[in-house]
Amino acid sequence: MGYGNGVEVIGAGSIRYTGITDRPQSGGGGTLSWSNTATVSAKIEPLSAHERFHADQLRGPVSHKITMRYRSDVTVTAAMRISFDSRLFNIRGVRKLDEINQWIEVMAEEDVGQ
């Protein structure tokens, strides 16, 4: 969307997906399980070929940018994943979009082989 004072302005109407963040849990016998940590509202955008190339160079395979409100009670890290209905996204990187802790941007790869 537009910019105001150097900070991207994100319209409330574009935050239309509800998802669940998951944190990995070690299971017995070396198996990996996932634990739900929070329900979040987000904007999901596929990356263009140019954006994808540059993101892949920095973080590994990335297919989508997910923007969500910053929450002090939820720490999102690259070890986590986010699910939106039947879609699953492995988080590759997280950054704050502003210094007032309003928005975070998650770079993720959609897991299409689930």
What does this protein structure show overall?
The protein is mainly β. It has one domain: Beta Barrel (Thrombin, subunit H), CATH 2.40.10. The chain is 10% helix and 50% strand. The longest helix has 11 residues. The termini are far apart. The N terminus is likely disordered.
Largest sheet strand order: 3-4-5-8-7-6
Helicity level: under 10%
User: How many strands?
Assistant: 8
Order of helices and strands: EEEEHEEEE
Question: How much of the residues is beta strand, in percent?
Answer: over 45%
Which architecture per CATH? Beta Barrel
CATH topological fold name: Thrombin, subunit H
Task: Using the alpha-carbon principal axes, give the shape.
Answer: globular
**How many helical elements?**
1
In angstroms, what separates the terminal alpha carbons? Answer: 32 Å
Q: Characterize the largest beta sheet: strand count, sense, and whether it forms a barrel.
A: 6 strands, antiparallel, barrel
Indicate the CATH class: Mainly Beta
